[in-house]
């Protein structure tokens, strides 16, 4: 017996628009985790990330911002909503904190120094170090790394979510990866920084 092909996001959305509650549940289960992780890494708050994830899908139910399949996938659209909600919440709750850093190098908090050489720590510790480094990036670099590297969103959908051209996504991602490598090198050699890591694609 052949298995029924899984509904696409757009098919689930169409069923949702026709009042199918199970379609909403399926869509929520499929996409909620990624939305939550994005909001968590952007805000640093688990409770806020939960609120954002819930609000994204409530917004989808209310169809407040209107999904246009001509502009990109539903996944990119949902990330775009999440991004706007994160920024709105942060502006409202922390008006004194700048969400955007104009300088490429400024405004980055120092990472806690890891005493073990990066080459000798476990894979989990490596990922933890990388995630700590991601959190310290300026917003415009952090969000593109989270989308393209962590959630594996393609450049076109990332451009829709971020409201910028694909070329900007590519350039920001290139810069973000360079900053991450520099920060990981600082953790590995906090005093002298003699040995450098080779520039490779950062996998989260």
CATH superfamily of the largest domain: Winged helix-like DNA-binding domain superfamily/Winged helix DNA-binding domain
Distance between the termini: 38 Å
Major sheet details: none
Task: Please tell me how large the radius of gyration is.
Answer: 19 Å
- Beta content: under 5%
Number of strands: 0
Poorly predicted parts: 95-122
- The percent range for helix content is 55-70%
Total count of domains: 2
The helix/strand class is mainly alpha
Order of helices and strands: HHHHHHHH
CATH class of the largest domain: Mainly Alpha
CATH fold name of the largest domain: Arc Repressor Mutant, subunit A
Provide a count of the helices.
Answer: 8
Mean pLDDT: 76
- Give me the oligomer status: single chain
CATH architecture of the largest domain: Orthogonal Bundle
Cα shape: globular
Polypeptide structure, described:
- There is one protein chain.
- This protein has 204 residues and is mostly helical.
- It has 2 domains: 7-99, Rna Polymerase Sigma Factor, Chain: A (Orthogonal Bundle); 103-204, Orthogonal Bundle (Arc Repressor Mutant, subunit A).
- 61% of the residues lie in helices and 0% in strands.
- The protein contains 8 helices and no strands.
């Amino acid at each position: 017996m052949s298995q029924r092909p899984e509904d696409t996001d757009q098919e689930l959305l169409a069923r949702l628009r026709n009042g199918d509650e199970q379609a909403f549940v399926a869509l929520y289960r499929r996409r909620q985790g990624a939305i939550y992780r994005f909001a968590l890494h952007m805000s640093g708050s688990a409770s806020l990330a939960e609120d954002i994830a819930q609000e994204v899908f409530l917004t989808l139910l209310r169809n407040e911002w209107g999904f246009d399949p001509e502009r990109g996938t539903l996944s990119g659209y949902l990330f775009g909503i999440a991004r706007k909600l994160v920024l709105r919440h942060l502006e409202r709750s922390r008006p004194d904190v700048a969400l955007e850093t104009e300088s490429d190098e400024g405004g980055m908090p120092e990472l806690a120094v890891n005493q073990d050489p990066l080459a000798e720590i476990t894979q989990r510790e490596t990922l933890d170090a990388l995630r700590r480094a991601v959190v310290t990036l300026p917003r415009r670099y952090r969000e593109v790394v989270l989308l393209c590297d962590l959630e594996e969103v393609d450049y076109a959908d990332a451009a829709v979510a971020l409201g910028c051209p694909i070329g900007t996504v590519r350039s920001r991602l290139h810069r973000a990866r360079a900053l991450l490598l520099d920060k990981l090198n600082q953790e590995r050699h906090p005093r002298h920084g003699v040995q450098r890591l080779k520039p490779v694609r950062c996998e989260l």
